[in-house]
Specification:
By secondary structure, the chain is α+β, with helices and mostly antiparallel strands. The chain has 5 helices and 7 strands. The chain has helices at residues 12-47, 104-109, 123-140, 167-219, 259-263; strands spanning 50-60, 65-71, 77-83, 86-91, 97-101, 145-151, 155-160. Helix 1 (12-47) packs antiparallel against helix 4 (167-219). The longest helix has 53 residues, at 167-219. The relative contact order is 0.16.
Length: 264
């Protein structure tokens, strides 16, 4: 029996689904690298800080002024000044004096000050924002302990009032790229499996049809063979018998001759 040939070419819809799956896989890998570089690493560093109990020791406002950059439009930028606010606390982890910062971003932006206000064009607005937090820590939290975050390895002389990244950021950084990777892989695998099953079904159908044709040919009876005895003379066979015709055919250009002409 001849070997069956089955077409393995994908249809247009299957080709589109495979492209969609590969696109989702590529997006998942790319987003994993981007989110891991921009958010995952800072989040892991932020989660390394341990919670501790802090108590305000002193609130100072030096005479030193710092610059900040403000924006007032697409092509409008400038610098303004704000006063420095220093809040020293005592944390329960190291039992030592440390400078309090609002979060990791402000610690990186200005490690000398506890608070960096949103930069405004008017210096007086920046000053009012700093004075408000000075009054809050002096009057509200002067005799209370609050939760702060301390990292002995990275910043032994600094503590954070709040974390800029928490476990939810870590969850989102890993969840959505993983979902995109799994969804793309699932689409590709389902499309390939569906095509493979279709190819097998087509091969089985062709094999079944060829088997039924062979059965029909074997079930058809063969014509009986004539047995020739030794004492019976063989009949002459003419391979090309000439058909007998009742009338003699004339040639194409033959002219009939009259009887008188023949006698003369």
């Amino acid at each position: 029996m001849a070997k069956m040939r089955v077409s393995y070419e994908y249809s247009e819809a299957e080709d589109k689904s495979i492209r969609l799956g590969l696109f989702l896989i590529a997006c998942g890998i790319l987003s994993l690298f981007i989110l891991g570089f921009c958010w995952l690493s800072p989040t892991l560093q932020s989660l390394q800080s341990k919670p501790a109990n802090c108590t305000v020791v002193s609130v100072l406002r030096p005479e030193e002024m710092f610059e900040c950059v403000f924006t007032c439009g697409a092509d409008c930028k400038g610098t303004s000044l704000y006063p420095c606010l220093q809040i020293f606390v005592n944390n329960s982890e190291s039992n030592s004096l440390a400078l309090l910062h609002f979060d990791e971003q402000q610690l990186v932006l200005n490690p000398k000050c506890s608070y960096v206000p949103p930069c405004e064009r008017d210096n007086q607005k920046n000053r009012d924002s700093v004075l408000w937090w000075q009054d809050y820590f002096t009057n509200e939290l002067s005799s209370q302990s609050f939760t702060c975050f301390f990292n002995q390895q990275r910043r032994p002389d600094d503590v954070l009032w709040r974390r800029s990244h928490d476990a939810s950021v870590l969850l989102h950084c890993l969840l959505w790229p993983t979902v995109s990777l799994l969804l793309g892989t699932l689409i590709v695998l389902l499309t390939v499996c569906a095509r493979s099953l279709a190819v097998r079904a087509e091969a089985l159908q062709k094999r079944k049809c060829s088997y039924e044709v062979c059965q029909d040919l074997s079930a058809t009876p063969a014509p009986p063979r004539r047995v020739i005895r030794p004492d019976q003379p063989a009949e002459p066979t003419n391979s090309d018998p000439e058909p007998s015709s009742p009338t003699r055919t004339l040639p194409l250009f033959a002219v009939p001759v009259r009887r008188r002409d023949r006698e003369q």
